[in-house]
Amino acid sequence: MDANLLDLIYSVVADPGRWPDVLVGVSDHLGAQGGMLIQCPPAASGRPATQTLARLSEEPAAIFQEHYVWNPWTFAIARVPFGKAASANSLIEPGTIEKTAFYADVLAPWDHADTLNITHKAFNADDSIGGFGFCLSSRAAERAVERALELDAIAPHLCRAFEASLLVGGQADGWRHLSTILELMPNCALLLDRRGYVTQANSAAAELLRQSDGIAFETKGGLRLVSALASERQAFSRMLDNALRLVSGIGARLPEPVRISRPSGAAHLLVTAVPLPRPAFAFADLVAPARVLVVIVDPAAKSRATASAIQAAYGLTGAEARVALLLASGITGAQMPAMLGVTAATIKTQLRRCFEKTGTHSQAELMRLFAMFPPSGRPEA
How far is CA 281 from CA 20, 152, 188, 300, in A? Predict the structure, then answer.
């Protein structure tokens, strides 16, 4: 085994960002065109594959993503034991792949005649499959059996390095600080993984869930948030699903906040789902699963925010801060004139100034921004 190649492979333990360099190094060792790390989700999920490419063209990868994630090679590779290297063409009947649209659209134009693959169990969550792939040209594919044996010798090192880099990647990008951040937030806050299961909740959220007054939970396969009132469950579920679709790459719009009634008769809750940015290491999701932040504003709870803090943070006047805080509590602009004893034109002007000073463009955006500063009552003018 080449000592320099081993050093390169294990360098990802300290820096998961070096995986493209490792894929190039292994590709050179095998005589491959390039390599990839890939996770293929189940076809019914609608999610795109997650890929890290090295020295492979983006164009065939995009065509593959859109049309051919599940192809004869994918189905065949899924049956190979974890950690075992195999040539894709050796797993199917000779000539099978050449008869497919996948071959015509992706393989032939870029001379991808075969791939060498190693599946890894970490990719198999939610009926997905994935691992390492190295593309062989027509010329290199003539020695695919020999090259598969070479990859088989490297496979244990690649798998161990990947497992270690997952642990490091799971601590990167500030993920380990999320528990501290949640507890510092003035509102109820929870984290959801990509399947919608709760992975963490701050103490305020835990107390709210214990009360089951507005927000409750189900325990089917994991802890899932639901509305306590059946009549509001569909809207609540749709908001969470839209946030999860966005972080999965199949959604385009941020979900609107929803208002949740409380069986006790207490003031309604305002719930916002915020998609979290993807980690720098594309596969850190496998061990650091927080994908959505759910913020629940309870107007009846004692707030840590004050109108003076809002004014100082965004340069708002007392009247503008009052309107902004009421908006964050779920009161619409149309309800404010009667509530505050001012004209609709005054409210409109104050809202416009709030938008300008906070860099927002709609009531929904302003509501999300000020959800971090829930009102403890009507702020002073």
Answer: 11, 25, 29, 40
Q: How many Å apart are CA 168 and CA 162, to the nearest integer? A: 10
Asked whether the beta carbons of 50 and 44 are under 8 A apart, the reply is no
Tens-digit pLDDT profile for residues 320-356: 888 877 776 667 888 888 878 899 999 999 988 988 8
The span from the CA of 223 to the CA of 221, in Å, is 7
Asked if residues 187 and 296 have their Cβ atoms less than 8 Å apart, the reply is yes
Q: Cα–Cα distance between 9 and 296 in angstroms, integer?
A: 44
Q: Are 128 and 120 in contact (CB under 8 A)?
A: no
Q: Tokens 């089951």 — which residue?
A: 212
What three-state secondary structure class fits 362? coil
pLDDT, tens digit (0-9, with 9 covering 90-100), for 81-112: 999 999 999 999 999 999 999 999 999 999 99
**Region 155-176 average pLDDT:** 76
Q: Kindly report the CA angle at 253 between 290 and 166, in degrees rounded to 5? A: 25
Give 147-160 as a DSSP string: HHHHHHHHHHHHHH
- Cβ neighbours of 361 (radius 10 Å): 10
Q: Which domains does the chain have, with CATH numbers?
A: 3-169 (3.30.450.80), 175-297 (3.30.450.20), 307-370 (1.10.10.10)
Taking only the tens place, the pLDDT of each residue in 31-64 is: 999 999 999 999 888 788 889 999 999 999 999 9
pTM over 0.85: no
Residues near 108 by Cβ (< 8 Å), separated by ≥ 6?
none
Q: Per-residue pLDDT tens for 115-156? A: 999 999 988 877 899 999 999 999 999 999 999 999 999 999
Of 53, 2, 55, the closest CA to residue 33 belongs to 55
Q: d(Cα 286, Cα 130) in Å, to the nearest integer? A: 12
Would you say 77 and 67 are in contact if contact means Cβ atoms under 8 Å apart?
A: no
